[in-house]
Amino acid sequence: MKYRLIIRPEAEADLADAFSWYEDKRRGLGYDFLLQVEVGLKHIEKAPETHPISYQGTRKYLTKRFPYKIVYILDRETVVVLAILHGKRSEELLKERIESSKQ
Fold first, then answer.
1. Residue 103 pLDDT > 70
2. For residues 17-49, b (16+ Cβ closer than 10 Å) or e, as one string?
3. Residue-range domains of the chain with CATH
């Protein structure tokens, strides 16, 4: 089955922030981070059911090499990426995003 991938603006902002942070630490590291996220998004798009259901129906993909998670929900043939967050980020932020996605 082919899934449609939608990346919410908040998740795009997360990605841009993380890219900038890594790029500030070392030139080129931000691009390495983007490549790992791209691998994760492709994996999610091909097989979103692979990851177990978690809080409020969300699923998480953990990136390789970087301590980030891609949080998404699966709705029939659509995958909605809610967040791309550092593993230590507050769960409250994620809860807010989940609630706003239901409206």
1. no
2. ebbeebbeeeeeebeebbebbeebbeebeeebe
3. 4-101 (3.30.2310.20)
DSSP per residue, the chain? ---EEEE-HHHHHHHHHHHHHHHHHSTTHHHHHHHHHHHHHHHHHH-GGGSPP-GGGEEEEEPSSS-EEEEEEEETTEEEEEEEEETTS-HHHHHHHHHHHT-
> pLDDT for 31-82, tens place per residue?
999 999 999 999 999 999 999 999 889 999 999 999 999 999 998 899 999 9
Residues 103 and 60: their CA atoms lie apart, in Å, by: 21
Q: Record the tokens describing residue 93, joined without a space.
A: 């932020």
Strands 78-86 and 4-7: parallel
Token pair of 45 as six digits: 């798009």
Per-residue confidence (pLDDT) for residue 71, from 0 to 100: 95
